[in-house]
């Protein structure tokens, strides 16, 4: 058990390293151009992470088979829709959404994924981080309509997290308060 | 952080100390009413899972977990509301009575009830003024998302659906 936790922590750290800087680089600040305090910057950070997650799921396809691959593709499709939705929200606020990086740029910073077990563990970490990000945004966004949107996305990521638990042969629903993790 | 400790922290957020102003924060009367409505719905879910477990209308391993979660939600909301209204004595819901006839019918009923409850949270939570309370309530909403997956599993329904 101890070894398992250590591996998980290592993977989680790798994921954090891989994705923590996804909104940075040479791009303009996330949500640039919108009025200060509109929430566009925060939504831009969420979009940058969402784009990295989409690339991360594509990296997982290579080592997954059967039901795990099928449902991972479905989750990936959902994540793409979330990215499109966030992009629209940012544009509606007058902001410029962050652009996606190349697959190679993202892949350089992902952890090594030798098998399905590692991929599913990585997916769980990604979903935990997404839940946390959207719940933080629910607290921080100024506009109730934007809050409603990110709450909906948090619920969707919670459902993804549950699906990943099932693919890992674990119970779908595990905690009464699903807060996500960094 | 252990799950138990984290759950206690969230409960703490939903309780007196950190959130004593919570409902002072949700200043509009409608906010309190919304939370009372949520409490009523969480109690209804808890009662449904209790009844289903008694009648063997849900797989025990799943039903017990979902019931424990609903009880934690009820506890958190009661603390937020500093007690809240007492549970109302009501006649058994005829829909629930019918649903308890089998595991499939109960899973369908529970999925409907969870979805309805999520809708009420979605309407209310964005308007709660206290940021930390919004986040804590959001963690319940996210839990409901996991319950929907657990119930869809019982129904052999797709693991992932595309609502948006």
Structure description:
The complex is a heterodimer of chains A (182) and B (164). With 182 residues, chain A is mainly α. Chain A contains six helices and no strands. Helices cover 68% and strands 0% of the residues of chain A. In chain A, α1 packs across α5 (116-140). The longest helix of chain A has 27 residues, at 66-92. Chain B is mostly helical. Chain B has one domain (3-154): Up-down Bundle (Ferritin). Chain B has helices at 3-13, 16-19, 22-25, 29-54, 60-80, 94-99, 103-124, 131-154. In chain B, α4 packs antiparallel against α5. At the A-B interface, α3, α5 and α6 of A face α1, α5, α7 and α8 of B.
DSSP, total strands of chain B: 0
Oligomer: heterodimer
Largest sheet of chain A: none
* CATH superfamily caption of chain B: Ferritin, core subunit, four-helix bundle
Query: In terms of per-residue confidence, which ranges of chain A show pLDDT below 50 for 5 or more consecutive residues?
Result: 1-14, 20-26
Mean pLDDT metric of chain B: 85
Let me know the largest β-sheet of chain B.
none
H/E topology pattern of chain B: HHHHHHHH
Number of domains of chain A: 1
- CATH first level of chain B: Mainly Alpha
Largest interface: A-B, 44 and 46 residues
Q: Report the CATH architecture of chain A.
A: Up-down Bundle
What is the first-to-last residue Cα distance of chain A? Answer: 21 Å
Count structural domains of chain B. Answer: 1
CATH class of chain A: Mainly Alpha
> What Rg of chain A do the Cα atoms give?
16 Å
Ends apart, CA distance between termini of chain B = 33 Å
Estimated structural class of chain B: mainly alpha
Helical residue percent of chain A?
Answer: 55-70%
């Amino acid at each position: 058990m101890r070894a398992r936790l250590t591996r998980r922590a290592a993977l989680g750290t790798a994921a954090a390293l891989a994705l923590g800087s996804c909104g940075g680089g040479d791009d303009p600040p996330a949500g640039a151009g919108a009025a200060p305090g509109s929430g566009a910057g925060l939504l831009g950070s969420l979009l940058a992470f969402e784009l990295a997650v989409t690339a991360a799921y594509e990296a997982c396809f290579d080592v997954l088979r059967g039901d795990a691959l099928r449902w991972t593709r479905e989750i990936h499709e959902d994540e793409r829709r979330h990215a499109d939705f966030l992009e629209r929200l940012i544009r509606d606020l007058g902001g410029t959404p962050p652009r996606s990086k190349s697959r190679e740029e993202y892949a350089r910073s992902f952890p090594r994924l030798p098998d399905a077990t590692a991929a599913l563990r990585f997916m769980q970490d990604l979903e935990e981080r997404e839940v946390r990000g959207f719940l933080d945004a629910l607290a921080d966004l100024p506009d109730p309509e934007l809050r409603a949107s990110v709450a909906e996305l948090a619920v969707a990521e919670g459902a993804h997290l549950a699906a990943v638990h099932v693919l890992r042969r674990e119970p779908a629903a595990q905690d009464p308060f699903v807060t996500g993790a960094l | 952080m252990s799950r138990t400790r984290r759950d206690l922290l969230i409960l703490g957020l939903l309780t007196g100390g950190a959130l004593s102003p919570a409902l002072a924060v949700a200043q509009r009367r409608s906010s309190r009413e919304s939370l009372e409505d949520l409490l009523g719905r969480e109690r209804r879910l808890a009662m449904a899972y209790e009844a289903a477990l008694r009648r063997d209308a849900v797989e025990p391993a799943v039903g017990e977990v979902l019931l424990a979660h609903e009880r934690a939600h009820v506890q958190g909301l009661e603390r937020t509301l500093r007690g809240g209204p007492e549970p109302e004595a009501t006649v058994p819901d005829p829909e629930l009575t019918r649903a308890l006839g089998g595991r499939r019918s109960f899973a369908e009923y529970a999925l409907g009830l969870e979805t309805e409850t999520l809708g009420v949270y979605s309407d209310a939570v964005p308007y709660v003024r206290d940021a930390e309370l919004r986040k804590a309530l959001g963690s319940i909403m996210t839990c409901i998302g996991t319950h929907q997956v657990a119930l869809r599993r019982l129904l052999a329904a797709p693991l992932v659906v595309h609502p948006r």
